[in-house]
UniProtKB/TrEMBL annotation:
Pathway: Lipid metabolism; fatty acid biosynthesis. This is 3-ketoacyl-CoA synthase. It comes from Gossypium klotzschianum. Its EC number is 2.3.1.-. It comes from the Eukaryota. It is found in: Membrane. The chain crosses the membrane at residues 44-65, 86-105.
Length: 515
């Protein structure tokens, strides 16, 4: 939940001058020159990316011509030559077999995403702007300045009129009790899991690994224990409960499940990502702590992963990479999103003025690590060449920003708030369609914390845009401070699963969001 501040520090102020700065701003070039440059760059990309193929084609052609010119005497001489070198052939064959055996035994097991589901709250939990502000006024906890501040945040947030808040927040006065918080957690987690098990026809008894992440609500027994009890999961299940890790914890949970699937053969792993709002609503007048009230909404997801080879045929995606960046060693990064008490003793999540700059640094580190894993050779050569020129010859040369559109077909940027989506769109040079899923998820469901990247993927699926071998980049930020990425590859043309979050409203989107 903490990461919501990343998205909203700018959104609340309406300032476009603060944000993730990865590159210097550049003026638009002349149109004709930009068109020529586009085709030159694409041609260079295809040439370099297929360089090995282009080199092998002449060699294969020459070998084919040579073989076609051989007669029976030439073939007989070749056979005699091989007979005299039988020992060498046996040694080479043994080494080859040994190497292949070692590779097969030690290579990472593929991790498949069989399916996932996102919780869709009931309509009576919707919180339109007017009702939200009226309830905030009637609680009597906020002064006029704080009420006006919340109104401005909502107007600039990018949220629509159909987001959801928990039942306890609809009461006047609100009733944020432990029982109400448990009820919210159960409705979200069990709602997502019921749909997942129904769509996949997997029995809960078959689940061998369970990972649950929720930052700000960690009761005893744990949320993972609540799931074990509800579905009567088997006694030897490996269950984990991650807390306090912010909006990027969903990717961390996937990474943990991936590592466990490398150890435990032939099993399923379920990852449940959610956030709990009921007991973490802020009832004070510290403006930096009021922002999460305006952005965070009810939501959650459940993901089914498998390392079974026969699941490849029905799985939607294969996990390619997970890259995690942690800046917690830096004191400013550690405290930039911090749960604390205000002067009146009321608990909330405070946001540092350095938040967006810290997020930018974490993002830069993350994509620098991710780039060599996913970018085509052409982009890596351009980046490396400009880096060497800048270091050795001319310090004023602008660094080359790799084009991640050449590495990924779809982008799921954590829907933390309008500002962070704007900044990533600008600094990664993305097109509006690349951030459409993030903007529409924010508009329809608000900031659902670590589960938002799954609502975004569900949006892209509902639009029918996922094709076989497409690559999807999920990227999220979290308190601590963290920036985490997951890369998936589609195993087929993916259709949305039944009972999806966009099932009855996808035709209404995209909508125009006022500035």
């Amino acid at each position: 939940m903490n990461q919501g501040g990343v998205a909203t520090t700018n959104g609340g102020s309406g300032s476009g001058s603060v944000g993730v700065r990865i590159q210097q701003s550049r003026r638009l070039p002349d149109f004709l020159q930009s068109v020529n440059l586009k085709y030159v760059k694409l041609g260079y990309h295809y040439l370099i990316s297929n360089l090995l193929t282009l080199c092998f084609i002449p060699a294969i052609a020459a070998l084919s011509i040579q073989v076609s010119q051989m007669n029976l005497d030439d073939l007989r001489q070749l056979w005699l030559h091989l007979q005299y070198n039988l020992v060498s052939i046996i040694i080479c064959s043994a080494i080859l077999v040994f190497g292949l055996t070692v590779y097969i035994m030690t290579r990472p097991r593929p991790v498949y995403l069989v399916d996932y589901s996102c919780y869709r709250p009931p309509d009576h939990l919707k919180a339109p702007y007017g009702r939200f502000l009226e309830h905030s006024r009637l609680t009597g906890d906020f002064d006029e300045s704080s009420l006006e501040f919340q109104r401005k945040i909502l107007e600039r947030s990018g949220l629509g009129e159909e987001t959801y808040v928990p039942k306890a927040m609809h009461s006047i006065p609100p009733t944020p009790s432990m029982a109400a918080a448990r009820e919210e957690a159960e409705e979200v987690m069990f709602g997502a899991l019921d749909t997942l098990f129904r769509n996949t026809n997997v029995s809960p008894k078959d689940i061998g690994i369970l990972v649950v992440n929720c930052s700000l609500f960690n009761p005893t027994p744990s949320l993972s224990a609540m799931i074990v009890n509800k579905y009567k999961l088997r006694g030897n299940i490996r269950s984990f409960n991650l807390g306090g890790m912010g909006c990027s914890a969903g990717v961390i949970a996937v990474d943990l499940a991936k590592d466990l699937l490398q150890v435990h053969r032939n099993t399923y792993a379920v990852v449940v990502s959610t956030e709990n709002i009921t007991q973490n609503w802020y009832f004070g007048n510290n403006k930096s702590m009021l922002i999460p009230n305006c952005l965070f909404r009810v939501g959650g997801s459940a993901v089914l992963l498998s390392n079974k080879s026969n699941d490849r045929r029905r799985a939607k995606y294969k996990l390619i990479h997970v890259v995690r960046t942690h800046r917690g060693a830096d004191d400013k990064a550690f405290r930039c999103v911090y749960q604390d008490q205000d002067d009146a003793g009321k608990t909330g999540v405070s946001l540092s003025k350095d938040l967006m700059a810290i997020a930018g640094g974490a993002l830069k580190t993350n994509i620098t690590t991710l780039g060599p894993l996913v970018l085509p050779i052409s982009e890596q050569l351009l980046f490396f060449t400009t880096l060497v020129v800048k270091k050795l010859f001319n310090a004023s040369v602008k660094p080359y920003i790799p084009d991640f559109k050449l590495a990924f077909d779809h982008f799921c940027i954590h829907a933390g708030g309008r500002a962070v989506i704007d900044e990533l769109e600008k600094n990664l040079q993305l097109l509006p369609i690349h951030v459409e899923a993030s903007r529409m998820t924010l508009h329809r469901f608000g900031n659902t914390s670590s589960s938002s990247i799954w609502y975004e993927l569900a949006y892209i699926e509902a639009k029918g845009r996922i094709r076989n071998r497409n690559r999807i980049w999920q990227i999220a930020f979290g308190s601590g401070f963290k920036c985490n990425s997951a890369v998936w590859q589609a195993l087929r043309n993916v259709k949305p699963s039944s009972n999806g979050p966009w099932e009855d409203c996808i035709d209404k989107y995209p909508v125009k969001i006022s500035s």
